[in-house]
């Protein structure tokens, strides 16, 4: 039967409207700031408060902000960065948080715990600080501890927990209940307004109610440290370095769990390819999914004042990692971000599985292995991943730090198969980097920092509904 003319018109109109809808959807997708490879938790919903977009069903609570008055009378410093969550009594947890402040930046000095005009600095005992400037003022970097009650959703107290350090970027939690905070600098008295050398790792007990003793763990090397992860089986500490020509390190402690007693610092080598570059920037040496067996070489003069540890390590065969940043221990393996790795220089994630004889004599026969787990080819799916954690359901959650006011920083999820989805987006003016992502022990609350202006969020939602 020949269709009626009205039916033809109606059909043509329907096709036209369908085409317009598809074009509109395509245009909306093109204009969106992110692209999911799997559904995850679905599309982000615009935050009416203009701070942080989340999927439907999720919500956040601001639990700490820069400039608030703490229990010790000092102010919450700015530049929030790496962070970890530790259980306390009952429903309380401690969040130990870094502040990436340095003495050479006058604005950073104003954002320190002493206040904009240093009006509260007298409350800080300079003898309890690791270092001061040449005028005797404690350096503004360090850590704060936030005690938060998961049941009530209230911040119980905040206090300065490490003082006088510089450029505390990331770090990592230990299995014995402390936070290792890392200085991402090599400041020295000869070139900067400091009295002591910097570029060290410091340990902060999570349950400490005041300032921790500022003891630099010098055997872990002097370089631009970024983050650490500890293997609970062996006590070996793995360390990243935020340099384009950085290395990936491990520290074998003399006594596991007692890092101040010293140990051996080593750098990773691709077996059979000494001096390799893992970034794939100039030459592709491996593809996503590829594995490489590893060796580890001892490093000498790890406290050198010359800032040349990575150059000497690479000359001895260590593999280069392009801006190694976040590192986190998972289920018998660790993941680390190479923030500028890949042909686009927009990020890789490496996965390291240690030897059954890690750090022992049998390691040569049964070496550890490293995999190129992820390499972005589209900045809308993944753009310069930095801090990361392993979620209770086995996915990675990765913070972005892309330095741009035009391209928003997102919180990304990564499935065990390496598929990406978007979990959150910073929409606050200034587009500060996201950092310090971690979960409460019960897995129901996720915490994350917005570095500028300095905000810590507690996020809750239907975590078990993730779709892959």
User: Count of DSSP E strands?
Assistant: 26
One letter per element, helices H and strands E, the order comes to HEEEEEHEEEEEEEEEEHEEEEEEEEEEE
Average pLDDT number: 93
- Using the alpha-carbon principal axes, give the shape: globular
Helices and strands: which structural class?
Answer: mainly beta
Q: What's the helical proportion of residues? A: under 10%
Distance between the termini: 46 Å
Number of helices: 3
Unreliable stretches, pLDDT < 50, 5 or more residues? 1-29
Characterize the largest beta sheet: strand count, sense, and whether it forms a barrel: 9 strands, antiparallel
Rg (C-alpha, Å): 24 Å
Give the strand order of the largest sheet, numbering strands 1, 2, ... along the chain.
Answer: 11-12-13-14-15-19-18-17-16
Q: Into which percentage range does the β-strand content fall?
A: 25-35%
């Amino acid at each position: 039967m020949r269709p009626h003319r009205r039916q033809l018109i109606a059909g043509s109109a329907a096709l036209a409207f369908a085409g317009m809808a598809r074009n509109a959807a395509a245009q909306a997708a093109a204009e969106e700031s992110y692209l999911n490879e799997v559904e995850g938790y679905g599309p982000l919903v615009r935050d009416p408060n203009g701070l942080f977009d989340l999927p439907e069903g999720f919500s956040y609570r601001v639990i700490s902000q820069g400039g608030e008055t703490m229990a010790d009378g000092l102010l919450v410093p700015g530049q929030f960065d790496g962070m970890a969550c530790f259980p306390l009594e009952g429903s309380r947890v401690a969040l130990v948080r870094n502040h990436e402040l340095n003495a050479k930046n006058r604005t950073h000095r104003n954002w320190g715990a002493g206040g904009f005009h240093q009006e509260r600095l007298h409350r800080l005992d300079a003898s309890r600080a690791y270092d001061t400037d040449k005028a005797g003022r404690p350096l503004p970097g360090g850590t704060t501890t936030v005690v938060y009650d998961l049941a009530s959703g209230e911040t119980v107290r905040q206090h300065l927990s490490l003082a006088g350090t510089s450029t505390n970027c990331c770090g990592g939690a230990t299995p014995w209940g402390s936070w290792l905070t890392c200085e991402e600098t090599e400041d020295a008295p000869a070139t900067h307004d400091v009295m002591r050398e910097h570029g060290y790792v410091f340990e902060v007990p999570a349950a400490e109610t005041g300032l921790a003793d500022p003891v630099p763990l010098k055997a872990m090397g002097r370089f631009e440290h970024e983050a650490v992860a500890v293997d609970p089986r062996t006590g070996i500490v793995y360390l990243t370095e935020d340099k384009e020509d950085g290395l990936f390190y491990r520290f074998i402690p003399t006594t596991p769990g007692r890092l101040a007693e010293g140990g051996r610092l080593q750098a990773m080598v691709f077996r059979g390819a000494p001096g390799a570059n893992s970034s794939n920037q100039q030459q592709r040496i491996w593809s996503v999914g590829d594995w490489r067996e590893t060796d580890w070489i001892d490093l000498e003069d790890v406290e050198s004042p010359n800032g040349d540890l990575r150059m000497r390590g690479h000359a001895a065969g260590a593999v280069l990692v392009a801006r190694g940043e976040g590192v986190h221990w998972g289920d018998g393996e660790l993941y680390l971000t190479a923030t500028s790795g890949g042909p686009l220089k927009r990020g890789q994630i490496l996965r390291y599985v240690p030897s059954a004889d890690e750090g022992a004599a049998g390691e040569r026969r049964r070496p550890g292995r490293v995999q190129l787990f992820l390499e972005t080819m589209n900045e809308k799916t993944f753009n310069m991943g930095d801090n990361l954690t392993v979620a209770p359901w086995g996915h990675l959650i990765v913070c972005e730090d892309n330095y741009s006011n035009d391209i928003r920083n997102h919180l990304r999820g990564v499935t065990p198969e390496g598929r990406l989805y978007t979990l959150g987006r910073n929409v606050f003016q200034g587009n500060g980097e996201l950092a310090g992502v971690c979960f409460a022990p019960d897995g129901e609350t996720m915490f994350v920092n917005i570095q500028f202006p300095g905000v810590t969020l507690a996020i809750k939602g239907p975590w078990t509904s993730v779709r892959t």
